[in-house]
Amino acid sequence: MDLANKKVLVIGAARSGIAAAKIAKNLGANVILSDAKENLDVEITGVEIRLGKQTEELLSGVDLIIVSPAVPIKIPVLKAASKKNIPIISEVELAYDLAKSPICAVTGTNGKTTTVTLLGLLLKEKFSKVGVGGNIGYPLSEVALEVGAGGCLAVEISSYQMEATKNFKPHISAILNVTPDHLKRHGSMEVYQAMKEKIFSQQTAEDFLILNFDDERTREMIDRAACKVVYFSRQRELAEGAFIKNNSLVIKFGGETHELCTIDELGIKGGHNVENALAASMIAFLAGVDVDKISGVLKIFQGVEHRIEFVREIDGVKYFNDSKATNTDSAIKALETFAGHIVLIAGGDDKGTDLTEFLNLVNERVDYLILVGDAAARFKACALEKNFHAEKILEAGYSMERAVELAKEISHPPQVVLLSPACASFDMYSDFEERGRDFKRIVNEL
Protein backbone atom coordinates (compact mmCIF):
# COMPACT_ATOMS: atom_id res chain seq x y z
CA MET A 1 0.00 0.00 0.00
CA ASP A 2 1.48 3.32 -1.11
CA LEU A 3 0.58 6.02 1.42
CA ALA A 4 3.58 8.28 0.84
CA ASN A 5 2.51 11.94 1.01
CA LYS A 6 -1.18 10.94 1.20
CA LYS A 7 -3.46 12.62 3.73
CA VAL A 8 -4.96 9.86 5.86
CA LEU A 9 -7.76 10.32 8.40
CA VAL A 10 -8.05 7.61 11.05
CA ILE A 11 -11.34 7.61 12.94
CA GLY A 12 -11.43 5.95 16.35
CA ALA A 13 -8.59 6.26 18.85
CA ALA A 14 -8.78 2.81 20.44
CA ARG A 15 -6.13 0.12 19.97
CA SER A 16 -6.80 -0.55 16.29
CA GLY A 17 -7.06 3.12 15.38
CA ILE A 18 -3.85 4.03 17.18
CA ALA A 19 -2.05 1.15 15.44
CA ALA A 20 -3.38 2.22 12.03
CA ALA A 21 -2.33 5.84 12.64
CA LYS A 22 1.22 4.83 13.57
CA ILE A 23 1.55 2.52 10.57
CA ALA A 24 0.18 5.10 8.14
CA LYS A 25 2.65 7.64 9.53
CA ASN A 26 5.54 5.18 9.12
CA LEU A 27 4.46 4.60 5.52
CA GLY A 28 4.89 8.29 4.81
CA ALA A 29 1.35 9.58 5.16
CA ASN A 30 0.23 12.83 6.76
CA VAL A 31 -2.08 11.46 9.45
CA ILE A 32 -4.96 12.87 11.47
CA LEU A 33 -6.35 10.69 14.27
CA SER A 34 -9.88 11.68 15.25
CA ASP A 35 -12.14 10.46 18.05
CA ALA A 36 -15.55 11.78 19.11
CA LYS A 37 -14.56 11.51 22.78
CA GLU A 38 -13.01 14.69 24.12
CA ASN A 39 -11.27 13.39 27.24
CA LEU A 40 -8.84 10.85 25.74
CA ASP A 41 -5.15 10.96 26.54
CA VAL A 42 -3.61 10.20 23.14
CA GLU A 43 -0.29 11.38 21.77
CA ILE A 44 1.55 9.96 18.74
CA THR A 45 4.68 11.61 17.42
CA GLY A 46 4.04 13.14 14.01
CA VAL A 47 0.29 12.49 14.10
CA GLU A 48 -2.27 15.28 14.50
CA ILE A 49 -4.85 14.42 17.17
CA ARG A 50 -8.38 15.83 16.90
CA LEU A 51 -10.85 15.04 19.67
CA GLY A 52 -14.50 15.95 19.97
CA LYS A 53 -17.16 16.72 17.38
CA GLN A 54 -16.40 15.26 13.96
CA THR A 55 -17.52 17.66 11.24
CA GLU A 56 -17.03 17.67 7.46
CA GLU A 57 -14.09 20.02 7.97
CA LEU A 58 -12.12 16.91 8.95
CA LEU A 59 -12.41 15.66 5.36
CA SER A 60 -10.59 18.57 3.74
CA GLY A 61 -7.89 17.21 1.44
CA VAL A 62 -8.22 13.66 2.79
CA ASP A 63 -7.16 10.87 0.40
CA LEU A 64 -8.09 7.88 2.57
CA ILE A 65 -10.06 7.13 5.73
CA ILE A 66 -9.22 4.20 8.01
CA VAL A 67 -11.99 3.25 10.44
CA SER A 68 -11.63 1.49 13.79
CA PRO A 69 -14.04 -1.44 14.35
CA ALA A 70 -15.98 0.38 17.09
CA VAL A 71 -16.94 3.18 14.68
CA PRO A 72 -20.15 2.54 12.68
CA ILE A 73 -19.87 3.44 9.01
CA LYS A 74 -23.24 5.22 9.26
CA ILE A 75 -21.95 8.16 11.35
CA PRO A 76 -22.47 11.54 9.59
CA VAL A 77 -18.82 12.27 8.83
CA LEU A 78 -18.41 8.92 7.07
CA LYS A 79 -21.66 9.41 5.13
CA ALA A 80 -20.28 12.76 4.00
CA ALA A 81 -17.00 11.11 3.02
CA SER A 82 -18.86 8.56 0.89
CA LYS A 83 -20.64 11.37 -0.94
CA LYS A 84 -17.25 12.92 -1.66
CA ASN A 85 -15.99 9.53 -2.94
CA ILE A 86 -13.23 9.40 -0.34
CA PRO A 87 -12.14 5.75 0.06
CA ILE A 88 -13.03 4.26 3.46
CA ILE A 89 -11.36 1.09 4.69
CA SER A 90 -11.24 -0.77 7.98
CA GLU A 91 -8.07 -1.44 9.97
CA VAL A 92 -8.51 -5.09 8.94
CA GLU A 93 -8.40 -4.07 5.27
CA LEU A 94 -5.20 -2.13 5.93
CA ALA A 95 -3.75 -5.26 7.56
CA TYR A 96 -4.73 -7.39 4.56
CA ASP A 97 -2.95 -4.99 2.21
CA LEU A 98 0.17 -5.16 4.39
CA ALA A 99 0.15 -8.92 5.05
CA LYS A 100 2.80 -11.04 3.35
CA SER A 101 1.73 -14.34 4.96
CA PRO A 102 -1.51 -16.31 4.43
CA ILE A 103 -4.47 -15.47 6.64
CA CYS A 104 -6.67 -17.98 8.46
CA ALA A 105 -9.69 -15.97 9.62
CA VAL A 106 -12.47 -17.01 12.01
CA THR A 107 -15.80 -15.31 12.63
CA GLY A 108 -19.11 -16.25 14.23
CA THR A 109 -21.29 -15.04 17.06
CA ASN A 110 -19.65 -17.22 19.70
CA GLY A 111 -16.46 -19.23 20.12
CA LYS A 112 -14.18 -17.00 18.06
CA THR A 113 -11.60 -16.23 20.73
CA THR A 114 -11.22 -19.82 21.93
CA THR A 115 -11.00 -21.11 18.35
CA VAL A 116 -8.44 -18.53 17.24
CA THR A 117 -6.30 -18.97 20.36
CA LEU A 118 -6.26 -22.72 19.78
CA LEU A 119 -5.62 -22.20 16.07
CA GLY A 120 -2.61 -20.03 16.82
CA LEU A 121 -1.08 -22.84 18.89
CA LEU A 122 -1.83 -25.40 16.18
CA LEU A 123 -0.23 -23.28 13.45
CA LYS A 124 2.93 -22.94 15.53
CA GLU A 125 3.42 -26.68 15.00
CA LYS A 126 4.17 -25.92 11.33
CA PHE A 127 5.13 -22.27 10.94
CA SER A 128 8.11 -20.60 12.63
CA LYS A 129 6.28 -17.26 12.64
CA VAL A 130 2.62 -17.15 13.68
CA GLY A 131 0.63 -14.01 14.43
CA VAL A 132 -2.65 -14.01 16.40
CA GLY A 133 -4.65 -10.81 16.06
CA GLY A 134 -7.80 -8.97 15.08
CA ASN A 135 -10.84 -8.83 17.35
CA ILE A 136 -8.96 -10.95 19.88
CA GLY A 137 -7.30 -7.78 21.21
CA TYR A 138 -4.18 -7.29 19.07
CA PRO A 139 -4.45 -4.89 16.09
CA LEU A 140 -4.16 -7.02 12.97
CA SER A 141 -2.16 -4.41 11.07
CA GLU A 142 0.58 -4.55 13.71
CA VAL A 143 0.54 -8.35 13.76
CA ALA A 144 0.76 -8.58 9.96
CA LEU A 145 3.86 -6.39 9.90
CA GLU A 146 5.50 -8.28 12.76
CA VAL A 147 5.05 -11.67 11.05
CA GLY A 148 6.06 -10.51 7.58
CA ALA A 149 6.61 -13.24 4.99
CA GLY A 150 6.98 -16.97 5.52
CA GLY A 151 4.55 -17.31 8.43
CA CYS A 152 0.81 -17.55 8.99
CA LEU A 153 -1.85 -15.36 10.63
CA ALA A 154 -4.64 -16.62 12.89
CA VAL A 155 -7.25 -13.88 12.87
CA GLU A 156 -10.45 -13.27 14.84
CA ILE A 157 -12.92 -11.21 12.81
CA SER A 158 -16.04 -9.45 14.13
CA SER A 159 -19.02 -8.19 12.17
CA TYR A 160 -17.91 -4.65 13.03
CA GLN A 161 -14.56 -5.17 11.34
CA MET A 162 -16.19 -6.30 8.09
CA GLU A 163 -18.38 -3.22 7.59
CA ALA A 164 -15.69 -1.25 5.74
CA THR A 165 -13.89 -4.07 3.91
CA LYS A 166 -13.90 -4.65 0.16
CA ASN A 167 -10.86 -6.76 -0.72
CA PHE A 168 -10.18 -8.72 2.48
CA LYS A 169 -9.49 -12.31 1.39
CA PRO A 170 -8.22 -14.97 3.78
CA HIS A 171 -6.83 -18.18 2.34
CA ILE A 172 -8.87 -20.16 4.88
CA SER A 173 -11.96 -18.72 6.57
CA ALA A 174 -14.39 -20.19 9.06
CA ILE A 175 -17.85 -19.21 10.30
CA LEU A 176 -18.64 -20.97 13.57
CA ASN A 177 -22.29 -19.96 14.06
CA VAL A 178 -24.69 -17.06 13.56
CA THR A 179 -27.18 -16.14 16.30
CA PRO A 180 -28.75 -12.76 17.21
CA ASP A 181 -26.14 -10.23 18.36
CA HIS A 182 -25.15 -6.60 17.70
CA LEU A 183 -28.58 -5.91 16.24
CA LYS A 184 -28.57 -2.36 17.62
CA ARG A 185 -25.65 -1.59 15.33
CA HIS A 186 -26.55 -3.63 12.26
CA GLY A 187 -30.33 -3.15 12.41
CA SER A 188 -31.39 -6.68 11.49
CA MET A 189 -30.26 -10.31 11.47
CA GLU A 190 -30.04 -10.15 7.69
CA VAL A 191 -27.49 -7.32 7.78
CA TYR A 192 -25.60 -8.95 10.67
CA GLN A 193 -25.32 -12.22 8.74
CA ALA A 194 -24.28 -10.35 5.59
CA MET A 195 -21.38 -8.82 7.52
CA LYS A 196 -20.31 -12.30 8.61
CA GLU A 197 -20.50 -13.58 5.04
CA LYS A 198 -18.17 -10.85 3.80
CA ILE A 199 -15.34 -12.93 5.27
CA PHE A 200 -15.58 -15.29 2.27
CA SER A 201 -16.98 -12.93 -0.37
CA GLN A 202 -13.60 -12.47 -2.09
CA GLN A 203 -12.38 -16.04 -1.77
CA THR A 204 -11.80 -18.06 -4.95
CA ALA A 205 -11.49 -21.74 -5.90
CA GLU A 206 -7.98 -21.90 -4.41
CA ASP A 207 -9.30 -20.94 -0.96
CA PHE A 208 -11.24 -22.79 1.76
CA LEU A 209 -14.33 -21.96 3.81
CA ILE A 210 -15.09 -23.97 6.97
CA LEU A 211 -18.77 -23.98 7.99
CA ASN A 212 -20.74 -25.39 10.92
CA PHE A 213 -23.05 -28.03 9.43
CA ASP A 214 -25.18 -28.06 12.60
CA ASP A 215 -26.09 -24.36 12.30
CA GLU A 216 -28.79 -23.83 9.66
CA ARG A 217 -27.65 -20.29 8.86
CA THR A 218 -24.04 -21.30 8.27
CA ARG A 219 -24.82 -24.59 6.53
CA GLU A 220 -26.63 -22.89 3.66
CA MET A 221 -23.85 -20.34 3.07
CA ILE A 222 -22.33 -22.89 0.68
CA ASP A 223 -24.77 -21.56 -1.92
CA ARG A 224 -22.97 -18.19 -1.94
CA ALA A 225 -19.36 -19.39 -1.72
CA ALA A 226 -17.03 -19.50 -4.74
CA CYS A 227 -14.33 -21.35 -2.76
CA LYS A 228 -14.00 -24.93 -1.56
CA VAL A 229 -16.41 -25.51 1.38
CA VAL A 230 -15.64 -28.00 4.15
CA TYR A 231 -18.01 -28.62 7.05
CA PHE A 232 -17.53 -29.52 10.70
CA SER A 233 -20.23 -31.15 12.82
CA ARG A 234 -20.70 -32.29 16.40
CA GLN A 235 -24.02 -33.96 15.63
CA ARG A 236 -23.44 -36.17 12.59
CA GLU A 237 -20.80 -38.06 10.64
CA LEU A 238 -19.83 -36.27 7.44
CA ALA A 239 -18.65 -37.59 4.07
CA GLU A 240 -15.84 -35.02 4.32
CA GLY A 241 -14.79 -32.63 7.06
CA ALA A 242 -14.31 -32.69 10.83
CA PHE A 243 -16.81 -34.54 13.02
CA ILE A 244 -17.37 -36.89 15.97
CA LYS A 245 -17.21 -40.66 15.51
CA ASN A 246 -17.20 -43.17 18.36
CA ASN A 247 -16.68 -40.33 20.86
CA SER A 248 -13.55 -39.15 19.00
CA LEU A 249 -12.73 -36.03 17.00
CA VAL A 250 -12.10 -37.11 13.41
CA ILE A 251 -10.99 -35.44 10.18
CA LYS A 252 -11.95 -37.07 6.88
CA PHE A 253 -10.42 -35.46 3.81
CA GLY A 254 -8.98 -36.60 0.49
CA GLY A 255 -10.21 -40.13 1.02
CA GLU A 256 -8.32 -40.55 4.30
CA THR A 257 -9.68 -40.57 7.86
CA HIS A 258 -7.61 -39.28 10.80
CA GLU A 259 -8.57 -39.75 14.45
CA LEU A 260 -7.38 -36.81 16.58
CA CYS A 261 -8.39 -37.56 20.19
CA THR A 262 -11.39 -38.58 22.24
CA ILE A 263 -13.77 -36.01 23.67
CA ASP A 264 -12.57 -37.01 27.15
CA GLU A 265 -8.94 -36.33 26.14
CA LEU A 266 -9.81 -32.87 24.83
CA GLY A 267 -8.33 -30.19 27.09
CA ILE A 268 -11.33 -27.84 26.77
CA LYS A 269 -14.69 -29.07 28.03
CA GLY A 270 -18.29 -28.58 26.93
CA GLY A 271 -20.15 -29.25 23.69
CA HIS A 272 -19.46 -25.79 22.34
CA ASN A 273 -15.73 -26.34 22.84
CA VAL A 274 -15.91 -29.62 20.92
CA GLU A 275 -17.20 -27.52 18.01
CA ASN A 276 -14.43 -24.95 18.48
CA ALA A 277 -11.82 -27.72 18.49
CA LEU A 278 -13.26 -29.31 15.35
CA ALA A 279 -13.18 -25.97 13.51
CA ALA A 280 -9.63 -25.09 14.60
CA SER A 281 -8.37 -28.58 13.74
CA MET A 282 -9.92 -28.47 10.27
CA ILE A 283 -8.33 -25.10 9.56
CA ALA A 284 -4.94 -26.26 10.82
CA PHE A 285 -5.16 -29.46 8.76
CA LEU A 286 -5.88 -27.51 5.58
CA ALA A 287 -2.99 -25.18 6.45
CA GLY A 288 -0.68 -28.20 6.46
CA VAL A 289 -0.27 -28.98 10.15
CA ASP A 290 0.57 -32.65 10.82
CA VAL A 291 -2.29 -34.69 12.31
CA ASP A 292 -0.18 -35.98 15.20
CA LYS A 293 0.77 -32.40 16.09
CA ILE A 294 -2.91 -31.39 16.06
CA SER A 295 -3.75 -34.26 18.41
CA GLY A 296 -1.06 -33.24 20.88
CA VAL A 297 -2.17 -29.62 21.09
CA LEU A 298 -5.85 -30.56 21.50
CA LYS A 299 -5.00 -32.58 24.59
CA ILE A 300 -3.07 -29.83 26.39
CA PHE A 301 -4.98 -26.66 25.47
CA GLN A 302 -6.99 -25.52 28.51
CA GLY A 303 -8.97 -22.62 27.07
CA VAL A 304 -8.83 -18.83 27.40
CA GLU A 305 -9.34 -16.27 30.12
CA HIS A 306 -12.95 -15.19 30.78
CA ARG A 307 -14.50 -18.24 29.05
CA ILE A 308 -15.87 -20.62 31.72
CA GLU A 309 -12.60 -20.01 33.55
CA PHE A 310 -12.24 -21.72 36.92
CA VAL A 311 -11.31 -19.11 39.53
CA ARG A 312 -11.36 -20.69 42.98
CA GLU A 313 -13.14 -23.15 45.26
CA ILE A 314 -14.49 -21.79 48.57
CA ASP A 315 -16.16 -24.07 51.13
CA GLY A 316 -16.77 -26.68 48.44
CA VAL A 317 -18.32 -24.19 45.96
CA LYS A 318 -16.47 -23.57 42.69
CA TYR A 319 -16.49 -20.08 41.11
CA PHE A 320 -16.29 -19.63 37.32
CA ASN A 321 -15.61 -16.49 35.28
CA ASP A 322 -17.50 -16.43 31.96
CA SER A 323 -17.40 -12.68 31.39
CA LYS A 324 -16.85 -13.32 27.67
CA ALA A 325 -20.52 -14.34 27.48
CA THR A 326 -21.76 -11.00 26.17
CA ASN A 327 -24.91 -12.43 24.60
CA THR A 328 -27.56 -14.99 25.50
CA ASP A 329 -26.34 -17.67 23.12
CA SER A 330 -22.90 -17.65 24.71
CA ALA A 331 -24.42 -17.74 28.20
CA ILE A 332 -26.59 -20.71 27.16
CA LYS A 333 -23.44 -22.62 26.21
CA ALA A 334 -22.01 -21.91 29.66
CA LEU A 335 -25.19 -23.08 31.42
CA GLU A 336 -25.14 -26.27 29.33
CA THR A 337 -21.63 -27.03 30.61
CA PHE A 338 -22.97 -27.65 34.14
CA ALA A 339 -25.53 -30.29 35.09
CA GLY A 340 -27.40 -27.83 37.31
CA HIS A 341 -27.30 -26.21 40.76
CA ILE A 342 -25.95 -22.94 39.37
CA VAL A 343 -25.87 -19.61 41.19
CA LEU A 344 -25.84 -17.34 38.16
CA ILE A 345 -24.65 -13.72 38.09
CA ALA A 346 -26.07 -12.11 34.94
CA GLY A 347 -26.91 -8.69 33.50
CA GLY A 348 -25.05 -5.64 32.32
CA ASP A 349 -25.39 -3.49 29.21
CA ASP A 350 -28.59 -4.90 27.71
CA LYS A 351 -28.47 -5.79 24.00
CA GLY A 352 -32.25 -6.18 23.94
CA THR A 353 -32.17 -9.69 22.47
CA ASP A 354 -34.89 -12.29 23.04
CA LEU A 355 -34.43 -14.03 26.42
CA THR A 356 -36.77 -16.99 25.87
CA GLU A 357 -34.27 -19.80 25.25
CA PHE A 358 -31.83 -18.41 27.82
CA LEU A 359 -34.49 -18.23 30.55
CA ASN A 360 -35.87 -21.66 29.71
CA LEU A 361 -32.43 -23.05 30.56
CA VAL A 362 -32.19 -20.81 33.63
CA ASN A 363 -35.40 -22.43 34.87
CA GLU A 364 -33.87 -25.89 34.38
CA ARG A 365 -30.40 -25.38 35.82
CA VAL A 366 -30.20 -22.22 37.97
CA ASP A 367 -30.95 -22.25 41.70
CA TYR A 368 -30.47 -18.51 42.23
CA LEU A 369 -30.31 -15.62 39.75
CA ILE A 370 -28.27 -12.57 40.81
CA LEU A 371 -28.77 -9.58 38.52
CA VAL A 372 -26.57 -6.53 37.95
CA GLY A 373 -26.47 -3.46 35.72
CA ASP A 374 -28.82 -1.86 33.21
CA ALA A 375 -30.38 -5.17 32.17
CA ALA A 376 -31.47 -6.20 35.67
CA ALA A 377 -35.05 -4.88 35.46
CA ARG A 378 -35.81 -6.48 32.09
CA PHE A 379 -34.13 -9.76 33.01
CA LYS A 380 -36.12 -9.91 36.27
CA ALA A 381 -39.43 -9.15 34.57
CA CYS A 382 -38.84 -11.77 31.89
CA ALA A 383 -37.70 -14.35 34.46
CA LEU A 384 -40.90 -13.81 36.46
CA GLU A 385 -42.94 -14.22 33.29
CA LYS A 386 -41.21 -17.58 32.86
CA ASN A 387 -42.29 -18.48 36.43
CA PHE A 388 -38.81 -18.37 37.92
CA HIS A 389 -39.33 -18.06 41.67
CA ALA A 390 -39.27 -14.41 42.77
CA GLU A 391 -37.53 -15.24 46.07
CA LYS A 392 -34.64 -16.75 44.08
CA ILE A 393 -33.97 -13.53 42.14
CA LEU A 394 -31.53 -11.19 43.89
CA GLU A 395 -30.46 -7.74 42.71
CA ALA A 396 -27.00 -6.26 43.27
CA GLY A 397 -27.42 -2.92 41.51
CA TYR A 398 -24.23 -1.81 39.79
CA SER A 399 -21.92 -3.58 42.24
CA MET A 400 -19.99 -6.73 41.33
CA GLU A 401 -18.79 -6.76 44.95
CA ARG A 402 -22.38 -7.07 46.16
CA ALA A 403 -23.19 -9.74 43.56
CA VAL A 404 -20.29 -11.92 44.70
CA GLU A 405 -21.12 -11.34 48.38
CA LEU A 406 -24.72 -12.48 47.74
CA ALA A 407 -23.46 -15.53 45.85
CA LYS A 408 -21.22 -16.52 48.75
CA GLU A 409 -24.02 -16.05 51.29
CA ILE A 410 -26.49 -18.33 49.50
CA SER A 411 -24.30 -20.96 47.79
CA HIS A 412 -23.35 -24.36 49.15
CA PRO A 413 -22.12 -27.65 47.60
CA PRO A 414 -22.89 -29.03 45.05
CA GLN A 415 -23.71 -25.57 43.66
CA VAL A 416 -21.33 -23.56 41.46
CA VAL A 417 -21.17 -19.77 41.16
CA LEU A 418 -21.08 -18.67 37.53
CA LEU A 419 -20.58 -15.16 36.15
CA SER A 420 -22.11 -15.46 32.68
CA PRO A 421 -23.75 -12.08 32.05
CA ALA A 422 -25.48 -12.59 28.66
CA CYS A 423 -24.84 -8.86 28.23
CA ALA A 424 -22.13 -6.43 27.23
CA SER A 425 -20.20 -4.71 30.02
CA PHE A 426 -20.23 -1.03 29.11
CA ASP A 427 -22.68 0.08 31.80
CA MET A 428 -20.16 -0.83 34.50
CA TYR A 429 -16.81 -1.58 32.81
CA SER A 430 -14.72 -0.61 29.79
CA ASP A 431 -14.89 -4.16 28.38
CA PHE A 432 -15.63 -7.76 29.33
CA GLU A 433 -11.98 -8.32 30.27
CA GLU A 434 -12.14 -5.64 32.96
CA ARG A 435 -15.42 -7.13 34.22
CA GLY A 436 -13.97 -10.63 34.39
CA ARG A 437 -10.80 -9.55 36.15
CA ASP A 438 -12.81 -7.56 38.68
CA PHE A 439 -14.95 -10.62 39.38
CA LYS A 440 -11.81 -12.74 39.87
CA ARG A 441 -10.26 -10.12 42.15
CA ILE A 442 -13.34 -10.06 44.34
CA VAL A 443 -13.59 -13.86 44.50
CA ASN A 444 -9.91 -14.21 45.35
CA GLU A 445 -10.26 -11.67 48.16
CA LEU A 446 -13.15 -13.49 49.83
Q: How many strands in all?
A: 20
| Assembly form of the protein | single chain
SS-based class: alpha/beta
State Rg: 23 Å
What does this structure look like?
- The protein has three domains: 7-86, Rossmann fold; 93-300, 3-Layer(aba) Sandwich (UDP-N-acetylmuramoyl-L-alanine:D-glutamate ligase); 309-445, Alpha-Beta Complex (Protein-Tyrosine Phosphatase, Chain A).
- It has helices spanning 15-26, 76-83, 91-98, 112-123, 140-147, 159-162, 183-186, 189-197, 216-219, 271-286, 291-300, 328-337, 356-365, 376-385, 400-410, 432-445, and strands spanning 7-11, 30-35, 48-51, 64-67, 88-90, 103-107, 130-134, 152-156, 172-175, 208-212, 228-233, 241-245, 248-253, 256-262, 309-314, 317-321, 342-347, 366-372, 393-395, 416-419.
- Helix content is 34%, strand content 23%.
What would a concise description of this structure say?
This protein has 446 residues and is of the alpha/beta class. Helix content is 34%, strand content 23%.
